[in-house]
Amino acid sequence: MKEIDIETKAGGVHGFIDERFSDLADVFIENFTSRDEVGASCSLTIEGRKIAHLWGGRKTRDGQVWEKDTVCTVFSATKGAMSLCAHILADRGILDLDALVTDYWPEFGAGGKESATVKMALDHSLGVPHIRGALKEGAFYDYQYMVKKVEQEKAFWIPGTRSGYHALTMAWTVGEIVHRAAKERMGTFFDREIAQFLSTDFWIGAPEKVSHRISPMIAAEPDEAWMKTRFVQEALAGGETPTHLFMRDFPLMNPNESACHQAEIGSANGITNAEGLAAMYTPLACGGLIDGKRLVSNDTLARMGRTSMASHEDATLLIATRFGLGFMKSTDNRKRADAVNSSLIIGDAAFGHVGAGGSVGFADPECKLSFGYAMNHMGTGILMNPRGQSLIDSVYQTLGYNSSDSGAWISN
């Protein structure tokens, strides 16, 4: 392994990397020198072996150093963690993904939602992408309050008939399904069955004792290209559309306050770093196994990696999207004139999840890789920006994949 220890204008970059993947370290460093990275970490495993773990920069532009164990909010990359809980329950015969949501949660059936299935909650076709009415202050930190709001909300469409990203409400749809099936809260289940099982730092509801390790998040600086996108224009137009409601509600979750860190918001407030994201996906890249211990079966793993819902126009994001059951698949919007930073280009067999601003974790069973990237300086766009995508591209190119023109990395 090659040790990394250099200084950049944003601070030191440290870690280790298999020399075969030295280009990944170069790209990680370039993010600090030319792409305005502030603090970040990147981790890669192949065949269950840690190939790279890099970290560097600062927690704020002029503040504390980003340490090896620094963690941050990874926003929607948390959805992969929450969805894994549902799949583990299904693997154990505790949760039937084809069952009606009301089989576990009878109160959910109000407002035209009675035909909704558990699978629809996972693939964003459920029909409750947002809550139309105004929400109280601190609503997202009050789990039971939001569960009631979701129960009472009228469906935006007949469940299963279209795809619309459930950016925030997924925390209380999938989260409550897991709660009802497991008979314990999802954050508790995740901590014991996944984070502790993998001996990794990842919390959905972080304890106070880790607060000193949490980096503040730095908001993206909106530029002209982002402000001209169709998503932003529709979001600013008002009305009770899923797009506008997403923009209206996103600021209600403040990633820089302890109440947010300690809440259970399974769609958006996971606290971890690149190592935690890569660790979660490591067994999913290796046949469901880690150190000879099984996390999920081969059938469950195959189900997790399969595309379940795809659309040329997501009802919330207004771009083409491809979702598995709780995970994102490779999604290509690079040629759209009305969108910027709205793609995730990974292998066709890969699955994972992007977080707002550009964090990401995923597994690719085809080449047995798991990857994690977490940062505190958020970028513009809906999916990946050049900092994270350039790291992903470097890994696939080193592995011999030579084209992504099809919309996913392939080896010709």
Could you list some keywords that capture this structure?
globular; seven-stranded antiparallel beta sheet; 14 strands; Beta-lactamase; 412 residues
SSE order and pairing:
Elements: E1 2-8, E2 11-17, H1 22-34, E3 39-46, E4 49-57, E5 72-73, H2 78-91, H3 118-122, H4 143-152, H5 170-182, H6 186-198, E6 202-203, H7 224-227, H8 230-236, H9 242-249, H10 258-262, E7 271-272, H11 274-285, E8 289-290, E9 293-294, H12 298-305, E10 309-311, E11 321-323, E12 351-354, E13 360-364, E14 369-375, H13 386-398
If you had to describe this structure to a student in words, what would you say it looks like?
With 412 residues, this protein is an alpha+beta fold. The protein has a single domain (2-82, 188-398), classed as DD-peptidase/beta-lactamase superfamily (Beta-lactamase, 3-Layer(aba) Sandwich). Helices cover 30% and strands 15% of the residues. The chain is built from 13 helices and 14 strands. The chain has helices at 22-34, 78-91, 118-122, 143-152, 170-182, 186-198, 224-227, 230-236, 242-249, 258-262, 274-285, 298-305, 386-398; strands spanning 2-8, 11-17, 39-46, 49-57, 72-73, 202-203, 271-272, 289-290, 293-294, 309-311, 321-323, 351-354, 360-364, 369-375. Strands 1-2-4-3-14-13-12 form a 7-stranded antiparallel sheet, sandwiched between helices. A hairpin with a 2-residue loop joins strand 8 (289-290) and strand 9. The longest helix is centred in the N-terminal third of the chain and has 14 residues, at 78-91. The mean pLDDT is 97.
